[in-house]
Amino acid sequence: MKKLFLSLAATLALSGCVVWTPVSNMTDLSKVDFTNSYEFKEGLDCSYAAFGIIPVTHGAQFIEAVQDGDISKVLYVEHDFQFYGLFGRHCIHVYGK
To answer: Is 2 in a helix, a strand, or coil?
Structure first.
């Protein structure tokens, strides 16, 4: 029993975490004026998955993120993926006015 516990503890300790934020923007950033970026609104929608592959919640939808931030003009979109051993999270961030 002790060996099993130590094996599980070692596996969890070595599994670590992964955070991946790809640069996958859907808009042309050369046309965005960032001088007043503090005025941008942010919308967020996330989905969660057990073991990174079994969906637990729906989400990470562009429309939901736009509605969350009450955004009428989208300026910038980004995604991030995080994996924490037992569960994963994928979020979409939408910035605009």
So the answer is: helix
62: tokens are 């562009």
Residue 23, classed as helix, strand or coil, is coil
Which of these, 23, 63, 58, lies nearest to 43 by C-alpha position?
63
pLDDT of 2-12, one tens digit each?
777 777 666 65
- CA distances to 25, 40, 67, 70, 79 from 32, rounded to whole Å, are 12, 11, 21, 19, 18
Query: pLDDT by residue (tens digit) across 67-81?
Result: 999 999 988 888 888
74 half-sphere exposure, CB direction, 13 A CA radius:
19
Please tell me whether residue 62 adopts helix, strand or coil conformation: helix
29: tokens are 């950033």
